[in-house]
Amino acid sequence: MALVRLNKYLSTLGIASRREADKLIAAGLVKVNGKAVKEMGLKVDPEVDQVAVDRVRVSQERRLLYIVLNKPKGYVCSAKPTKTDPKIVTDLIDVPERIYPVGRLDKETTGLLLLTNDGTLVNRIIHPSSESEKEYEVTFFKQIPEGALNKLRTGVKLGGEGTLPTQVKKVGPAKIHIVLREGKNRQVRRICQKVGFPVKTLKRIRIKKLLLGDLPLGKWRYLTDLEVADLKSKV
Ligand code: URA
């Protein structure tokens, strides 16, 4: 688990506000691994360090977090930043737990990204057998005719391999909504390119019943219990 400042950790657990926690620390009432803490900015690992306040041990139950982010362009769905890709999606989410994206969106793709620390949910959504519906809004550089849409609907071959038929709805002269039930690498971009219409912008707007809605770009929120239950359901 990621390191977290001791005062923040105590406030996340509801033991004290950060300022009150600083006072408890200054009064010598907080111990980490049996030693009273003197250093104000000390960071702890909630999964490893034993924290006690006034001799009472406090600990964090493993919280399962389910988060939806409206991913902006330029962020990658990797665990670690690199020189070429210094911006990672978890930079946008301020929680002490280590969470990871469920599946991937390309660096240039925006929209609905799920993040969690619940490994069972990850498998339900991204395992090919789950066939969970994912819906994207796609814009093109030019108007797209019915013929091209029908090719997308019946399924396009990529690298000699077939893709499943898709649902496609035209929502503007150069804009469609497309629903996939599989997740091959860069699938939307590749199938659109294959029918002669390179993608201008790509945004994911739905996974199963979970909608991106009006969540602003770069912002995140927790899922409701109902949304989590739906994501975990088989249909
Ligand atoms: N298809 C793509 O081409 N890119 C994504 O990010 C998601 C689906």
Write a structural description.
The chain is α+β, with helices and mostly antiparallel strands and 235 residues long. The chain folds into three domains: 4-58, Roll (Structural Genomics Hypothetical 15.5 Kd Protein In mrcA-pckA Intergenic Region, Chain A), CATH 3.10.290; 66-128 and 210-232, Alpha-Beta Plaits (2-Layer Sandwich), CATH 3.30.70; 133-207, Alpha-L RNA-binding motif (Alpha-Beta Plaits, 2-Layer Sandwich). It has six helices and 15 strands. The chain has helices spanning 6-12, 18-26, 119-126, 146-154, 187-194, 225-232; strands spanning 4-5, 30-32, 35-36, 43-44, 51-53, 56-58, 66-71, 100-101, 110-116, 134-140, 167-172, 175-180, 199-207, 210-211, 220-222. Strands 7, 8, 9, 10, 11, 12, 13, 14 and 15 form a nine-stranded mixed sheet that branches. The chain binds uracil. Residues 105-106, 109, 186-189, 202 line the site of uracil. Residues 105-106, 109, 186-189, 202 line the site of uracil (URA).
Essential attributes:
21% helix, binds uracil, 9-stranded mixed sheet, 4-stranded antiparallel sheet, Alpha-Beta Plaits, Structural Genomics Hypothetical 15.5 Kd Protein In mrcA-pckA Intergenic Region, Chain A, alpha+beta, elongated, 235 residues, 15 strands
